[in-house]
Amino acid sequence: MDSSSSGQRALVIVPTYNERDSIVITLRRILTASDADVLVVDDASPDGTSQLVRDLEEPRVHVLDRPGKLGLGTAYVDGFGWGLERGYGVLVEMDADGSHPADRLQALIDAVRGGGADLAIGSRWVRGGSVVDWPRHREVLSRGANAYARVMLGLSVHDATAGFRAFSADLLRRFDLAGIHSQGYCFQIDMTVRARDLGARIVELPIAFREREHGVSKMSASIILEAMLRVTWWGLRRLTGRRLQEPAPA
């Protein structure tokens, strides 16, 4: 199938905040490993990440500048909107820090483009998946968070918190993107639940997830707490038979 045909182009959305040390090599890996374009969504990085990307003058790489540090969830939502407006048929989430394996990117794209999936997730916790150079406590936290989400939300997905995933444009158009306020881990769970509730076909592909190669992790206690509180809220509403609804944004 001609990937450049209408509706079949892929866009990889890469949120950045102070990722100067890693973004160039990540972009090179994406461009080499796939036929996708890239949108870097930068939150006014003080280290000049945005300008560094522009200086590459790579025709397949675009930059969306935002006025400040507005968070991961809204970065993806803005990126989805940018891509949908320009007719991309597959939209991919990917980290800037090198933790997501670029050699699995085309497989995610193809699972949506021609494989019949609405959402393809690069999963650490299915057969063949793994984590590399992770401390034990991080693995326990991730496995525990996913187990809790499966129980509370009735999910069959093994890695609902995974941030390496490809969506079909058709599925994203059915989402109320403006109504999504979750961030971090919680954003990924939120998107998974919404896809499930819309009857989307969700597949998981094994990946080897690596600890970030450069820079400092953006993970914080507030991100973890948000995920726990929202999943508990949604789960209680589900168990009481009420429609899933987000708590008011903080």
TrEMBL record:
Q: Which domain of life is it from?
A: Bacteria
Q: Which SUPFAM superfamilies match?
A: Nucleotide-diphospho-sugar transferases
Give the GO cellular component terms, alphabetically.
membrane
> Which GO biological-process labels does this protein carry?
glycolipid biosynthetic process
**Single GO term (MF):** dolichyl-phosphate beta-D-mannosyltransferase activity
Recite the UniProt keywords alphabetically: Glycosyltransferase, Transferase
Locate the Glycosyltransferase 2-like domain: which residues?
Answer: 12-173
Asked whether the UniProt record includes Isomerase among its keywords, one would answer no
Q: Which InterPro entries match?
A: DPM1-like (IPR039528), Glyco_trans_2-like (IPR001173), Nucleotide-diphossugar_trans (IPR029044)
The family annotation for this protein states: Belongs to the glycosyltransferase 2 family.
Protein name, as recorded = Polyprenol monophosphomannose synthase
Q: Which organism is it from?
A: Aeromicrobium camelliae
